[in-house]
Amino acid sequence: MSDVSPQTRAEIDRAGRGVARRIDPGARAMLIAVAIVAAVAALLLPWVAGTPGWQVLSSGTSGPLPTLFSFTMTGFAVVVSAAALLTRLWALAWFAAFGCGISSVNGLWAIWSQQTGAEAGPGFGMVLGVVAVVLLTFVWAGAALQRD
Predict the structure, then answer these.
(1) DSSP-assigned letters across all residues of 17-85
(2) What confidence tier does 18 reach under pLDDT thresholds 50, 70, 90?
């Protein structure tokens, strides 16, 4: 016979399921935090023809691809990544990895669109944003795959 009541057993099972849904990023947490700060800094630096990333995000007048990248980078690299880092939920870590992967492709398209036209090319902020998003993609994927 078991010395544990059914209520206690249910509570233990709930706690076990809660732990199974969490990740421990360990040393990756600092790298994730630095990449999030780099993504925020990228929004303050020039992207298209000297226009800062936050203006590309708010106005949308810099073309469709830089605007799309500004939205996906802000959404996934900043908001979802910060939420995943704070809550340490496995599902959010996967969502951050997947979304940052999509944002990486968007960023490469945005850089390509700036290099193929008559414009001066992409600004440093856009390049920094792509580097931050690519880094977050691989770091989040590694953290989500190593769930305990």
Answers:
(1) HHHHTB---TTHHHHHHHHHHHHHHHHHSEEETTEEHHHHHHH--S-HHHHHHHHHIIIIIIIIHHHHH
(2) low
Q: Is the Cβ–Cβ distance between 68 and 53 less than 8 Å?
A: no
Answer whether 143's CB lies under 8 Å from 92's CB. Answer: no
pTM higher than the cut 0.70: yes
Query: Which tens digits make up the pLDDT trace of 101-110?
Result: 999 999 999 9
Instruction: Give residue limits of the domains in the chain.
Output: 6-145
The 8-class DSSP code of residue 98 comes to: H
Q: Is the pLDDT of residue 1 over 60?
A: no
Structure tokens at 96: 């951050």
Q: What is the fold of 6-145?
A: Butyryl-CoA Dehydrogenase, subunit A; domain 3 (1.20.140)
- The phi, psi pair for 121, rounded to 5°, reads 110, 175
